[in-house]
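Figure 2 data, in text form.
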Amino acid sequence: MKQHLLSLICGFVCLSSAPAQEVFYTDQGIPRDSSFTAEGSYLKYKKYYPEIKVAKAILPDNVAEDRDVVYTVLDDSVNKKRRMYLDVFYPKKRGTYPALIMVHGGGWRSGDKSLQIPMAMQIAKSGFVTVAVEYQLSREAKYPNAVYNIKSAIRWMRANAEKYGIDTSKIAISGCSAGGQLAVLTGLTNGVEKLEGDHGNDGFSSDIQAIVDMDGVLNFLDPQSLNLTRKPNSPDIDWLGGSFAEVPLTWKEASGIYWVDKNSPPMLIITSGFSRFTAGKYELLGMYNELGLYNEHHSFDVNVHPYWLFHPWFEPTVIYTVNFLDKIFNPSN
């Protein structure tokens, strides 16, 4: 009964309606919605899972960091000198390492890159360069600007590969919730010119060689997504610029599943007990299997959507991710 109640509550709060919004403005004058935080999620879930603890950012001894690095500056009629930031975590030992760019969640309108830092630090400990990236949220810019941002950050990684010891042939992307949707879409649109954007770092590739999706939707047109009851200001409607009835082609274009082909990168999907957050999962995995593309699926049978933020699921999530990336990038290990 308790599990069922939590499912109903979370389904309503997380997807069917817009979250409570607390808007503020940054020093650049950028509107931000602070409604999604690790601490706020902890208070919501601890009533049902009293054993959970928020995963903390603990920098391992063998990892160095560069925080708040500017990866591009947007300069158009709307975003005057808008600086975009990322955080880099990399092994102290000199060498060339696979890299992982990590995209936070928050319904495309909330959250920030700090949510990815605990995982970024621990994955870097295992011999990866990890990058927690900022992207434009829906109060600032609608779809597809976030995709443009992320692809620009990937190009920045290749432009700065020598400095951070990045193997430019081994760059993966991961994302959580809305960030998972963005990670899948970014990784499945290698070479798609219309989604490259003009957000800087030209002259370098934004191609991705592996994808990790943590509870991020794969198909907005799947019944588990499309049949949800939504309000006009629901997060996906807000970000995509209208409802499915209003902008159906945008809803399809933003769905990673429609970009799958024989050249798609290997994919790991890690899910919670809420299957709707990865709507389209089984169809996508079926397509991957039919095309002979490597894929993995792991699931936590708990009704906690942002499981990656909390112990006891934090460590297994890191392990699943590291093991998957090792299989793809370091098969001899």
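Caption note: Residues 164 and 286 are 37 Å apart (CA to CA).
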